[in-house]
Amino acid sequence: MTATHLGMPAFPAAAREAVRDDVLRANLRRATHTIRDKRARAVSELADWDRLRAAGKAVKDHTLRHLDHYLLRLEAAVTAAGGTVHWAADAAEANRIVTALVLATGEREVVKVKSMATQEIGLNEALEAAGIAAYETDLAELIVQMGHDRPSHILVPAIHLNRAEIREVFRTEMGRWGRPAPDGLGDDPRELAEAARLHLREKFLHAKVAVSGANFMVAETGTMVVFESEGNGRMCLTLPETLISVVGIEKVVPTFRDLEIFLQTLPRSSTAERMNPYTTMWTGLGPSKGADGDGPAAFHLVLLDNGRTDTLADEVGRQALRCIRCSACLNVCPVYERAGGHAYGSVYPGPIGAILSPQLRGTDEEIDASLPYASTLCGACYEVCPVAIDIPEVLLHLRERVAQGGPATREGIRVRIRPARGHTAERAALRAARLLLERPGALRAGERLLSRARRLRPRRLPGPGRAWTDSRELPRPPREPFRDWWARERGGRA
Fold first, then answer.
1. CB–CB of 30/367 below 8 Å?
2. By 3-state DSSP, what share of the chain in percent is helix, strand and coil, each rounded to 5?
3. Which residues have CB under 8 Å from 207's CB, separation 6+?
4. What ranges does the record list as Basic and acidic residues composition bias (predicted)?
């Protein structure tokens, strides 16, 4: 995975800085609450939402169990339709493939459909190093790119900016990328959208090469599927002569019929719409370019691994690969709402990023080792997930891995996990707890001693525990241990 996080602090330090930004917090609060409320109303319209959620989970789990089979079937279908399939083990290989494909066309510019996979591998930077300019065409991605900023949300990358800030980006930067912003541009959303439309129209009409991702790939037919709301994706997928799609291997589904589930759950969970304004599907090449022809004359599919097979090997963590990138978990997360997406140091922010990034990138870096702790474990993310990813379960699983250090076992594979700096005390505390819990007599004596010494309860914990009691009261021990209460009330030993 690309090292976009290098130089960034670990989550606690980044989040501490972010929560001091009153404008950022106001922007996030307004946007996330609006989206989550709309989503709740859209979901409540479906009486069978729970069954759709279970069906989506089942399709994803089945596909992941047989991923090798469906990927080969997909490759055969794409090839039969005239496309070319490339396999990329990591970000570096994917970037080399895409760069070579663009250079082979003789072009030095590409237009892009919003794609988390290309952000993950740092494709724009790789293309720039090769002398190729990549232009984002999604409105929010365009804002972030022009502002020399980074996305902070899966669905709404510029969620951390307000209208006045966006207007300033357009006014000062748009001319450097192509058609400048109109004179006297205001901050009305319609004015901003119109300025972006006029700017992008020139890019669409001149581009010969486009780069996209895909929300789903259908193994049965070799069909790529992109959900979007603005129409920029439709322009990129039909006008250019060469289309290159970079897609994570987990995005495959077995049959065209399986899309029925996600056509209902993804729009409602992401944009709170009953259906997407634009759902574009393409299989192989477009018709021959003519008066009425559209679609690419050359199609390349780059299947991206980049840590996904390692994640698949973890029987608990692999459920993160079910993710359909709806961002519902971000919009209900109290941590994300206050810290924002940049604090996560990853293109995948929020709860899903806290479990996906450490698995794709490993936990050698302090920033990745800190992500499983970027949660209150309230469970709101699991409740809204349309494919029922138990994010709190995976967070605890990853915390255990980080705290343990040393060898860990995943389905018989011994994996070396380097303990993160700052977790030595936690690891020692967990080992002490294990020793105590393995000795019932010692545990019973400790509980009784604690209840008798309840008046001696300190207001603050010493050492590393001091930070915990800076913002919380230390719980008062009960008057008697549970074991004694059970023996008195039930007449037996607990």
1. no
2. 55, 10, 35
3. 109, 110, 111, 135, 236, 239, 240
4. 469-494
Cα–Cα distance, 216 to 227 (Å, whole number) = 9
> Taking Cα atoms as reference points, which of 397, 395, 360, 404 lies closest to residue 374?
395
State the Cα–Cα distance between residues 225 and 241, nearest whole angstrom.
18
- Distance, in Å, from the CA atom of 113 to the CA atom of 436, rounded to the nearest integer, reads 55
Locate the DSSP E strands across 319-465: 406-410, 413-417
Q: How far is Cα 105 from Cα 98, in angstroms, rounded to an integer?
A: 11
DSSP state of 353: H
CA dihedral 33, 34, 35, 39 (to 10 degrees): 100
Q: Which residue bears the tokens 């929300």?
A: 215
Task: Print the SS3 string covering 17-51.
Answer: HHCCCHHHHHHHHHHHHHHHHHHHHHHHCCCCHHH
Q: Which helix (H) or strand (E) holds 216?
A: strand 216-218
With residue 283 as reference, give the H or E element that holds it. Answer: strand 278-283
Q: Where in the chain is the domain with CATH 3.40.50.10420?
A: 18-308
Let me know: does 18 contact 341? Beta carbons within 8 Å.
no
Q: Are 266 and 29 in contact (CB under 8 A)?
A: no
Alpha-carbon Rg for the chain, nearest whole angstrom, is 25
Torsion of CA 266, 269, 271, 275, to 10 degrees: 40
Neighbours of 292 (CB within 10 A): 6
Instruction: Quote the Cα angle for 484-490-494, to 5°.
Output: 50
Going by DSSP bridges, is the β-strand pair 133-136/209-212 parallel, antiparallel, or unpaired? unpaired
DSSP state, 317?
G
pLDDT in tens, the chain (494 residues): 333 454 567 898 999 999 999 999 999 999 999 999 999 999 999 999 999 999 999 999 999 999 999 999 999 999 999 999 999 999 999 999 999 999 999 999 999 999 999 999 999 999 999 999 999 999 999 999 999 999 999 988 998 999 999 999 999 999 999 999 999 999 999 999 999 999 999 999 999 999 999 999 999 999 999 999 899 999 999 899 999 999 999 999 999 999 999 999 999 999 999 998 999 999 988 765 444 567 899 999 999 999 999 999 999 999 999 999 999 999 999 999 999 999 999 899 999 999 999 999 988 888 899 999 999 999 999 999 999 999 999 999 999 888 876 433 344 333 444 444 555 666 777 788 888 888 888 888 887 787 777 777 777 778 767 777 777 777 777 778 787 888 888 876 65
CA distance 147 to 173: 7
Angle between helices 189-206 and 139-146 (to 10 degrees): 90
Can you tell me the distance from the alpha carbon of 12 to that of 467, in angstroms, rounded to the nearest whole number?
12
Query: Which burial class, exposed, middle or buried, applies to 333 when counting CB atoms under 10 A from its CB (0-12, 13-18, 19+)?
Result: buried
